[in-house]
Specification:
It is a single chain. The two termini are 14 Å apart. Helix 1 crosses helix 3 and helix 1 crosses helix 5. The chain is globular and about 40 Å long. It has one domain. By secondary structure, the chain is mainly alpha-helical. The strands form 2 sheets. It has a 3-stranded antiparallel beta sheet with strand order 1-2-3.
Length: 107
């Protein structure tokens, strides 16, 4: 599995943690709406990876990112990405960060 796919999956796993408030959640949901699919990978209107929920189940890449975060990252960043004494919170960072910036930091 390529690093880019893993990072995309990680972003998708953390995406639900990034929104707070009903209005912001509505905006985020609209922006994150999948408009294109390439081999099981869903993309938003800007071409950034996003998630798709169908019949109460997320797509494979989103679930893979969730598993990746909880196997490696949550130990330091916390179960809900709220931070710990070892690493900073990720929730607030993701609220104002676009996919390209996130990718440049994590990759």
């Amino acid at each position: 599995m390529s690093v880019r796919i893993v990072i995309s999956a990680l972003v998708l796993a953390l995406l639900p943690l990034a929104s707070s408030g009903v209005a912001q959640a509505d905006d985020s949901m609209e922006k994150a709406k999948a408009v294109k699919e390439e081999g099981g990978k869903y993309l938003d209107a800007d071409g950034n990876p996003t998630y798709k929920i169908e019949n109460g189940t997320v797509d494979w890449y989103t679930f893979s990112g969730y598993r990746r975060y909880h196997s490696d990252c949550h130990v330091c960043h916390g179960q809900d990405a709220t931070g710990s004494s070892y690493a900073p919170a990720l929730v607030n960072s993701l609220k104002n960060m676009d996919y390209g910036t996130f990718l440049s930091i994590v990759a």
